[in-house]
Specification:
With 282 residues, the chain is of the alpha/beta class. It is built from eight helices and 14 strands. The two termini are 27 Å apart.
Length: 282
């Protein structure tokens, strides 16, 4: 039985590959994404929980972070379908018509969304608010959202109702980093997903990576293969907030008890290899 009060680094991995009953295609590569992400995070002492085919992603996020409310470092990962810039449903309390009565002005933001296994959307905007609402430190999210050009999520309007109707202030924005492969270029049958490419960079480096270098390294790795995919890092580069942060875990995030797990994972963990691009992690 895990004593969640003593967990210092907690990670939630949501893997949605089965969208039966919706207009979204099944995703065959999601399980492999999850295996690779779990390996990277657990090697650095994260307590990892994997949830598969989640209908309500936002609810799952809230339950997880309530469970690990004492943790110092959080990571959230999603592999599954996504939509780009879903249309926000207007709330008459926060929107008004222009003088011609044809256009609306609204204080509600909008953005990329993850798709639940039954089609319910969870916006990256709400994820940021939820992550920062559960603890005072930094939070990292990796989003591997793909789009199928033959499905609704890629070509037809989709709508999302936001739980948080305000933008994060600058100080809060400094506490969160979101890494993702751009949804508009990532197709459902893509074998070169963001997670897989991040893993290739990770095993090549054979160590934690400065988080400010991940975007460049992943994009260079794709570019070397002629892959028209783009990784982007949503972060405020103020020169100090993330300057020395190492991913999957910053050096200063590995506390006294964490070092025991960390050293054990490096030197005593069984060597594993999942494909020809892997290296042995000792």
């Amino acid at each position: 039985m895990i004593n969640t009060a003593k967990v210092q680094r907690a990670a939630l991995i949501v893997l949605n590959d089965d969208y039966a009953g919706t207009d979204y295609a099944k995703l065959d590569g999601v399980k492999d994404d999850g295996d690779k992400m779990e390996k990277m995070l657990s090697t650095y002492g994260f307590q990892v929980e994997i949830k598969r085919n989640v209908e309500d992603i936002g609810k799952e996020v809230q339950m997880f972070f309530n469970k690990y409310e004492k943790a110092e470092t959080f990571h959230f990962h999603f592999s599954g379908h996504g939509v780009e810039n879903a249309i926000v449903k207007f709330d008459p309390k926060v929107s008004t018509k222009d003088k011609n009565g044809k256009k609306f002005e609204t204080s509600e933001p909008f953005g990329d969304c993850m798709v639940g296994s039954k089609g319910k959307l969870y916006s990256a905007h709400d994820l940021r608010h939820d992550l920062l609402g559960f603890h005072p430190g930094k939070a990292v999210a990796t989003l591997d959202c793909c789009r199928d050009s033959n499905k609704r999520g890629a070509s037809q309007p989709v709508f999302v109702t936001l739980s948080h109707r305000r933008e994060l202030n600058v100080e809060n924005q400094k506490r969160i980093a979101v890494l993702q492969g751009t949804a508009e270029l990532h197709t459902a049958n893509d074998i070169n997903s963001f997670t897989k490419e991040l893993y290739k960079v990770y095993v090549k480096e054979d160590k934690a990576i400065p988080i400010l270098e991940i975007e460049r390294k992943v994009n260079m790795s794709w570019d070397d293969k002629g892959i028209t995919q783009i990784c982007k890092l949503d972060i405020i580069r103020d020169g100090k907030s993330w300057k020395d942060y190492m991913w999957p875990a910053s050096r200063d995030a590995i506390t006294k008890t964490g070092w025991i797990d960390f050293v054990y994972s490096l030197f005593f963990k069984e060597n594993t290899s999942t494909d020809q691009n892997d290296i042995k992690i000792q």
